[in-house]
Protein backbone atom coordinates (compact mmCIF):
# COMPACT_ATOMS: atom_id res chain seq x y z
CA UNK A 1 0.00 0.00 0.00
CA UNK A 2 1.43 3.30 -1.09
CA UNK A 3 -1.06 5.88 0.09
CA UNK A 4 -3.31 6.56 3.06
CA UNK A 5 -6.28 6.10 0.69
CA UNK A 6 -5.16 2.58 -0.21
CA UNK A 7 -4.65 1.74 3.46
CA UNK A 8 -8.17 2.95 4.25
CA UNK A 9 -9.63 0.95 1.34
CA UNK A 10 -7.91 -2.19 2.69
CA UNK A 11 -9.29 -1.57 6.20
CA UNK A 12 -12.76 -1.11 4.70
CA UNK A 13 -12.65 -4.24 2.57
CA UNK A 14 -11.45 -6.31 5.53
CA UNK A 15 -14.39 -4.98 7.55
CA UNK A 16 -12.34 -3.12 10.18
CA UNK A 17 -13.63 0.28 9.10
CA UNK A 18 -17.43 0.07 9.09
CA UNK A 19 -18.72 3.63 9.31
CA UNK A 20 -18.30 6.76 7.20
CA UNK A 21 -17.22 8.99 10.12
CA UNK A 22 -14.34 6.63 10.99
CA UNK A 23 -13.39 6.35 7.32
CA UNK A 24 -13.30 10.12 6.95
CA UNK A 25 -11.16 10.60 10.07
CA UNK A 26 -8.66 7.98 8.91
CA UNK A 27 -8.55 9.35 5.37
CA UNK A 28 -7.94 12.85 6.70
CA UNK A 29 -5.05 11.81 8.96
CA UNK A 30 -2.11 10.61 6.88
CA UNK A 31 0.00 8.10 8.81
CA UNK A 32 3.19 9.17 7.03
CA UNK A 33 3.26 12.30 9.21
CA UNK A 34 3.19 10.29 12.44
CA UNK A 35 5.84 7.59 11.94
CA UNK A 36 9.50 8.14 12.78
CA UNK A 37 11.18 10.39 10.20
CA UNK A 38 13.85 7.76 9.55
CA UNK A 39 11.32 5.20 8.32
CA UNK A 40 10.83 5.07 4.53
CA UNK A 41 7.44 6.51 3.57
CA UNK A 42 6.32 3.21 2.00
CA UNK A 43 6.35 1.52 5.43
CA UNK A 44 4.00 4.11 6.86
CA UNK A 45 1.04 2.43 5.18
CA UNK A 46 1.76 -1.12 6.36
CA UNK A 47 -0.82 -2.45 8.77
CA UNK A 48 1.66 -2.99 11.61
CA UNK A 49 3.00 -1.07 14.59
CA UNK A 50 6.17 0.97 13.93
CA UNK A 51 8.80 2.52 16.19
CA UNK A 52 8.39 6.19 17.14
CA UNK A 53 11.43 6.37 19.45
CA UNK A 54 11.89 5.99 23.24
CA UNK A 55 11.05 2.25 22.92
CA UNK A 56 7.47 3.16 22.01
CA UNK A 57 5.41 2.41 18.90
CA UNK A 58 2.62 3.91 16.85
CA UNK A 59 -0.19 1.32 16.93
CA UNK A 60 -1.15 -0.63 13.82
CA UNK A 61 -3.76 1.12 11.64
CA UNK A 62 -6.29 -1.70 12.22
CA UNK A 63 -6.06 -1.01 15.98
CA UNK A 64 -6.56 2.73 15.44
CA UNK A 65 -9.58 1.95 13.26
CA UNK A 66 -10.95 -0.62 15.73
CA UNK A 67 -10.74 1.84 18.63
CA UNK A 68 -12.36 4.62 16.58
CA UNK A 69 -15.19 2.24 15.66
CA UNK A 70 -15.67 1.22 19.31
CA UNK A 71 -15.75 4.84 20.47
CA UNK A 72 -17.50 6.42 17.49
CA UNK A 73 -20.90 6.94 19.12
CA UNK A 74 -19.10 9.00 21.75
CA UNK A 75 -16.84 10.87 19.32
CA UNK A 76 -19.60 13.18 18.23
CA UNK A 77 -19.50 16.93 17.58
CA UNK A 78 -18.64 18.71 20.83
CA UNK A 79 -17.50 15.64 22.81
CA UNK A 80 -14.68 15.77 25.39
CA UNK A 81 -12.15 13.02 24.81
CA UNK A 82 -9.05 11.71 26.56
CA UNK A 83 -6.30 9.84 24.69
CA UNK A 84 -3.98 8.16 27.19
CA UNK A 85 -0.46 7.45 25.91
CA UNK A 86 -0.97 9.65 22.89
CA UNK A 87 2.46 8.69 21.48
CA UNK A 88 2.64 9.78 17.84
CA UNK A 89 -0.55 11.85 18.13
CA UNK A 90 -2.29 9.91 15.31
CA UNK A 91 -5.37 8.86 17.23
CA UNK A 92 -5.72 12.21 19.00
CA UNK A 93 -5.73 13.87 15.56
CA UNK A 94 -8.28 11.41 14.15
CA UNK A 95 -10.54 11.87 17.17
CA UNK A 96 -10.08 15.66 16.84
CA UNK A 97 -11.42 15.44 13.28
CA UNK A 98 -14.45 13.51 14.58
CA UNK A 99 -15.38 15.81 17.49
CA UNK A 100 -15.16 18.95 15.33
CA UNK A 101 -14.80 22.62 16.20
CA UNK A 102 -16.76 22.45 19.44
CA UNK A 103 -15.09 19.27 20.73
CA UNK A 104 -11.88 18.75 22.65
CA UNK A 105 -9.32 15.94 22.70
CA UNK A 106 -6.71 15.93 25.46
CA UNK A 107 -3.76 13.65 24.69
CA UNK A 108 -1.50 12.75 27.56
CA UNK A 109 1.90 11.13 27.12
CA UNK A 110 4.63 10.48 29.68
CA UNK A 111 7.64 11.14 27.39
CA UNK A 112 8.07 14.92 26.90
CA UNK A 113 10.13 14.30 23.75
CA UNK A 114 7.28 12.30 22.20
CA UNK A 115 4.83 15.08 23.06
CA UNK A 116 7.07 17.57 21.22
CA UNK A 117 7.29 15.14 18.31
CA UNK A 118 3.52 14.55 18.23
CA UNK A 119 2.89 18.31 18.19
CA UNK A 120 5.29 18.59 15.23
CA UNK A 121 3.42 15.69 13.53
CA UNK A 122 0.06 17.43 13.92
CA UNK A 123 1.59 20.70 12.67
CA UNK A 124 2.36 18.91 9.39
CA UNK A 125 -1.02 17.18 9.07
CA UNK A 126 -3.65 19.25 10.91
CA UNK A 127 -2.29 22.53 12.33
CA UNK A 128 -5.85 23.85 12.76
CA UNK A 129 -6.59 21.19 15.38
CA UNK A 130 -3.82 22.65 17.56
CA UNK A 131 -4.37 26.32 16.68
CA UNK A 132 -8.13 26.18 17.29
CA UNK A 133 -7.77 24.14 20.50
CA UNK A 134 -9.55 20.95 19.38
CA UNK A 135 -6.49 18.89 20.28
CA UNK A 136 -4.17 19.53 23.19
CA UNK A 137 -1.15 17.27 23.67
CA UNK A 138 0.57 17.36 27.03
CA UNK A 139 3.24 15.66 29.04
CA UNK A 140 2.21 13.79 32.17
CA UNK A 141 1.53 10.45 33.77
CA UNK A 142 -2.18 9.71 33.75
CA UNK A 143 -1.87 7.55 36.87
CA UNK A 144 -0.42 10.55 38.74
CA UNK A 145 -2.16 13.88 39.29
CA UNK A 146 -1.64 15.24 35.75
CA UNK A 147 -5.37 15.36 34.97
CA UNK A 148 -6.75 16.29 38.35
CA UNK A 149 -9.95 18.29 37.97
CA UNK A 150 -10.18 17.69 34.21
CA UNK A 151 -13.03 15.17 34.18
CA UNK A 152 -15.45 14.20 32.89
CA UNK A 153 -14.65 12.75 29.46
CA UNK A 154 -17.28 11.31 27.11
CA UNK A 155 -14.74 8.95 25.56
CA UNK A 156 -11.41 7.63 26.84
CA UNK A 157 -8.93 5.69 24.73
CA UNK A 158 -6.06 4.03 26.55
CA UNK A 159 -3.14 3.10 24.29
CA UNK A 160 -1.07 1.22 26.87
CA UNK A 161 -1.80 -1.91 28.92
CA UNK A 162 -2.92 -1.66 32.56
CA UNK A 163 -2.46 -4.66 34.85
CA UNK A 164 -5.87 -3.92 36.40
CA UNK A 165 -8.55 -1.41 35.44
CA UNK A 166 -7.37 1.95 36.89
CA UNK A 167 -10.03 3.49 39.13
CA UNK A 168 -8.62 6.95 38.43
CA UNK A 169 -9.68 6.56 34.77
CA UNK A 170 -13.10 5.04 35.52
CA UNK A 171 -13.78 8.10 37.71
CA UNK A 172 -12.95 10.41 34.80
CA UNK A 173 -15.59 8.83 32.56
CA UNK A 174 -18.79 10.87 32.15
CA UNK A 175 -22.17 9.20 32.73
CA UNK A 176 -23.10 7.77 29.32
CA UNK A 177 -19.40 7.62 28.38
CA UNK A 178 -17.20 4.81 27.09
CA UNK A 179 -13.58 3.80 27.64
CA UNK A 180 -11.57 1.24 25.70
CA UNK A 181 -8.53 -0.08 27.53
CA UNK A 182 -6.21 -3.09 27.30
CA UNK A 183 -6.10 -4.86 30.68
CA UNK A 184 -3.93 -7.77 31.72
CA UNK A 185 -0.39 -8.95 32.17
CA UNK A 186 1.84 -6.13 30.98
CA UNK A 187 4.51 -8.43 29.54
CA UNK A 188 2.15 -10.82 27.79
CA UNK A 189 -1.21 -10.54 26.02
CA UNK A 190 -4.04 -8.43 27.36
CA UNK A 191 -7.77 -8.25 26.84
CA UNK A 192 -9.20 -5.13 25.26
CA UNK A 193 -12.05 -4.11 27.55
CA UNK A 194 -14.95 -1.84 26.82
CA UNK A 195 -16.10 0.09 29.89
CA UNK A 196 -19.49 1.78 29.69
CA UNK A 197 -20.75 4.10 32.42
CA UNK A 198 -24.53 4.40 32.31
CA UNK A 199 -26.45 7.57 33.07
CA UNK A 200 -26.87 6.41 36.66
CA UNK A 201 -23.10 6.06 37.07
CA UNK A 202 -23.10 2.22 37.01
CA UNK A 203 -20.11 0.69 35.25
CA UNK A 204 -20.53 -2.18 32.77
CA UNK A 205 -17.52 -4.06 31.36
CA UNK A 206 -17.13 -6.43 28.52
CA UNK A 207 -14.14 -8.17 26.98
CA UNK A 208 -13.55 -7.60 23.29
CA UNK A 209 -10.38 -9.32 22.02
CA UNK A 210 -6.85 -10.29 22.86
CA UNK A 211 -4.29 -7.59 22.15
CA UNK A 212 -0.68 -6.75 22.87
CA UNK A 213 0.23 -3.25 24.07
CA UNK A 214 3.20 -1.63 25.82
CA UNK A 215 2.74 -1.16 29.59
CA UNK A 216 0.83 1.71 31.18
CA UNK A 217 3.43 2.68 33.75
CA UNK A 218 3.01 4.07 37.25
CA UNK A 219 4.61 7.45 38.04
CA UNK A 220 8.29 6.87 38.86
CA UNK A 221 8.49 3.50 37.11
CA UNK A 222 11.73 3.30 35.13
CA UNK A 223 10.39 1.95 31.80
N1 LIG B 1 -1.87 5.59 20.42
C1 LIG B 1 -0.44 5.80 20.39
C2 LIG B 1 0.20 4.63 21.12
C3 LIG B 1 1.55 4.92 21.64
S1 LIG B 1 2.23 3.57 22.59
C4 LIG B 1 -0.01 5.82 18.92
O1 LIG B 1 -0.60 5.07 18.14
O2 LIG B 1 0.91 6.56 18.57
C5 LIG B 1 1.61 3.94 24.21
C6 LIG B 1 2.15 5.19 24.84
O3 LIG B 1 1.72 5.22 26.20
C7 LIG B 1 3.68 5.28 24.90
O4 LIG B 1 4.12 6.37 24.14
C8 LIG B 1 3.98 5.47 26.41
O5 LIG B 1 5.03 6.38 26.65
C9 LIG B 1 2.64 5.99 26.95
N2 LIG B 1 2.38 5.74 28.37
C10 LIG B 1 2.59 4.59 29.06
N3 LIG B 1 2.19 4.73 30.34
C11 LIG B 1 1.72 6.00 30.47
C12 LIG B 1 1.16 6.74 31.55
N4 LIG B 1 0.99 6.18 32.76
N5 LIG B 1 0.76 8.02 31.32
C13 LIG B 1 0.92 8.59 30.10
N6 LIG B 1 1.46 7.93 29.03
C14 LIG B 1 1.84 6.66 29.21
TrEMBL record:
Subcellular localization(s) per the UniProt record: Cytoplasm
A Gene Ontology molecular function term of the record: protein-L-isoaspartate (D-aspartate) O-methyltransferase activity
EC number, UniProt record: 2.1.1.77
GO biological-process terms attached to the record: methylation
Enzyme class, first EC level, given as a word: transferase
Key words, A-Z: Cytoplasm, Methyltransferase, S-adenosyl-L-methionine, Transferase
Gene Ontology CC, one term: cytoplasm
Subcellular location, principal: cytoplasm
UniProt cross-references to Pfam families, sorted A to Z: PCMT
Database matches in InterPro entries: PCMT, SAM-dependent_MTases_sf
KW Magnesium (keyword) present: no
PANTHER family hit by this protein: PROTEIN-L-ISOASPARTATE O-METHYLTRANSFERASE (PTHR11579), PROTEIN-L-ISOASPARTATE(D-ASPARTATE) O-METHYLTRANSFERASE (PTHR11579:SF0)
Family from the record: Belongs to the methyltransferase superfamily. L-isoaspartyl/D-aspartyl protein methyltransferase family.
Protein name: protein-L-isoaspartate(D-aspartate) O-methyltransferase
